[in-house]
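Lecture 7 notes: from sequence to structure.
We start with the chain below.
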Amino acid sequence: MKIQNLIIFTFFSLSITIQAQDLKPSNSLCLNFGSGTVVSIDYERNWRNDKNNNLFIGSIGAGAGLKGEVWTLYDTVEDPEWYFVSPQKATYCIGNGINYLEVGVGGIYVAGNTTQPYIAYPILGYRFIGSNNTTFKFYMTWPISGIQTEDLGSVPFGISLGQLF
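Predicted structure tokens for the same chain:
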């Protein structure tokens, strides 16, 4: 009887271990370039829908942004004005567990002497999650106040590289 209990316990333990290894991590740190930031580090929290592999992702970050036209910085601004920025995003990702279409909304808090302390925008992008839990995202945004805000220079796209943990 004891050997039967030991075998049942062993198989039960193995099934729990295998199930735990199948779970995807729910957190990630990403290095983000573009949109309303020159560079930012973002923390993302992922909620996975087990029925269809879709994701809901919320993120917040901290980084730097530049005043003026970022894409002409090399020839028009000799002494650029930097801003502390905090991007926030809420997106829904539709996909197969590796490739996702990402749709959502976001915004950037801009600290400092600015006429627009918060800039909101829609998000449309592509997200890839690799087998080693690395993430790559390419996305497009368009600030609701227009591509050239009064203070913060913005480009209409961004890329992000990250790691799930």
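Points to note: Helices lie at 2-22, 73-76. Residues 14-21 have pLDDT under 50 and may be disordered.
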